[in-house]
């Protein structure tokens, strides 16, 4: 039987898609909206970036802020669009994320999905009524 690995942070738990570790860390006081030191990504940003859909849902259901921005102005929706995480993008939109939000360069999630060749994400964004 494999040894249970203890992850160092809530961000690492989310990057590994470990919802049980995520839940335990939050119960022990980890901040659900706290950014990491290096990239200033919240756990929700990491979930969207890595396609950790179960963690993303858990975070949204427990009050994670889908409008938090990184220093570049990216929301979790921007990161999902950049990395082609269509299911995460759809979940964010279904939970009220503003897909028209612009980053520091004026780009929306649709711009980033298109420029990174993520056509499924772009189609999902357009289905949610975003026109630019």
The sequence of SSEs as H and E is: HHHHHHHH
The percent range for strand residues is: under 5%
Number of helices: 8
Structural class: mainly alpha
The global form is globular
User: How many whole angstroms does the radius of gyration measure?
Assistant: 15 Å
- By DSSP, the count of extended strands is 0
Biggest sheet features:
none
* Uncertain ranges: none
What is the average per-residue confidence, as pLDDT, rounded to a whole number?
94
Helix content: 40-55%
Report the span from N to C terminus. 51 Å
Description of the molecule:
The chain has 8 helices and no strands. It is mainly α and 132 residues long. Helix 4 runs parallel beside helix 6 and helix 7 runs antiparallel to helix 8. The radius of gyration is 15 Å and the shape is globular.
Descriptive labels:
globular, single chain, 132 residues
Task: Please write out the topology.
Layout (H helix, E strand, L loop, with lengths): L9 H6 L3 H9 L15 H8 L2 H9 L14 H8 L2 H9 L14 H7 L3 H9 L5
Helix pairs in contact: 3-4, 3-5, 4-6, 5-6, 5-7, 6-8, 7-8
